[in-house]
Specification:
Length: about 300
């Protein structure tokens, strides 16, 4: 009964938000409801459960990550955070926005050729002259975190990279990412490409509500075709997809400037958690620390539902 009451309260809160946000009694569109959902973040969980009594809490102080935010996607409860509003570099998590804009604005059947001007980094699999369908190139970029593919996609979607950066920043403003600025399609070192864990949680939750984006980032491996008949085997850099029960994405990131980063999400027993972790010490620690935070989050939400 208590759980039912909490669900009714949460449902009524969302309903009232939608009512008060409408003019002349109009019903909110699906997109408006999507925006309201990502804006819903609430610190009230500590009013229902003692977060410092939840199993796993004692391990959080020992995490090497410099910033994080962990949120229950349904309620918007902030389960744990550290320096979540602090502006930081976020490496290849940047590609989440590149992917989102490509999915929203591109035709997956478009033919896209990698040009020499796109090949700016060594950390890439695609080569000048390679030709893909756009949908396959997006997958390749997200699974193996291909930096040059991000430039190809940005040029294709925006016409040129500067126009694409303007699209990225316009989308960030639209999503309420007030502490974010994009100046790169891939997150390679750039002092003008920064965000914070709180903003990236908004982006993560918004992206995951897109079925195409969600399908891409939940794919552990794929054999992707080039238009010349070759195939490229791709294995997702997000190891949690195969090592953490219920993981559904999202994106890894690493540069010396940003440290080791991971945006992740997992679903267990109808609970979906979203986590952004920035500045972890090593490539392996970002996965271990993310798993510890997600475990703690599931324990916290289980205690909440059992109590309420």
């Amino acid at each position: 009964m208590k759980r039912l009451n909490i669900l009714l309260v949460l449902g009524m809160s969302l309903f009232l938000l939608s009512c008060f946000s409408c003019d002349d009694g109009d019903t909110l569109t699906r997109e408006e409801l999507r925006l309201q959902k990502i804006a819903l973040m609430d610190t009230a969980l500590s009013s229902y459960v003692r977060l410092d009594s939840i199993e796993g809490y004692d391990r959080l102080a020992g995490l090497s990550a410099e910033a994080w935010m962990l949120v229950d996607d349904y309620t918007g409860f902030i389960i744990s955070e550290k320096n979540a509003a602090s502006k930081r570099f976020f490496a290849s998590i940047t590609k989440m926005m590149t992917c989102l804009l490509a999915v929203e604005n591109g035709n997956p059947s478009d033919t896209v050729c990698v040009e020499a001007d796109d090949c700016l980094t060594r950390d890439a699999w695609v080569k000048a002259g390679d030709t893909y369908l756009l949908g396959d190139l997006i997958r390749e970029m997200m699974l193996v975190s291909d930096n040059n593919a991000a430039y190809t996609i940005a040029r294709h979607i925006g016409g040129d990279t500067l126009t694409f950066y303007a699209m990225m920043n316009a989308k960030a403003m639209y999503l309420g990412m007030d502490s974010t600025h994009f100046a790169s399609p891939n997150g390679m070192p750039n002092d003008s490409n920064y965000s914070c864990a709180r903003d990236l949680i908004r982006l993560s939750r918004y992206c995951l509500s897109d079925s195409t984006f969600s399908e891409i980032v939940s794919t552990a491996e794929a054999d992707l075709p080039l238009l010349d008949g070759r195939h490229m085997p791709c294995y997702n850099t997000n190891l949690l997809l195969t090592t953490y029960e219920g993981c559904i994405g999202i994106k890894t990131g690493y540069t010396r400037q940003a440290g080791c980063c991971l945006a992740s999400a997992a679903t267990r027993d109808s609970t979906t958690l979203c986590l952004v972790l920035l500045g972890s010490r090593t490539r392996s620690s970002r996965f271990k620390e993310s798993a510890q935070l997600l475990d703690y989050g599931f324990n916290a939400m289980k205690a909440f539902w059992e109590k309420n």
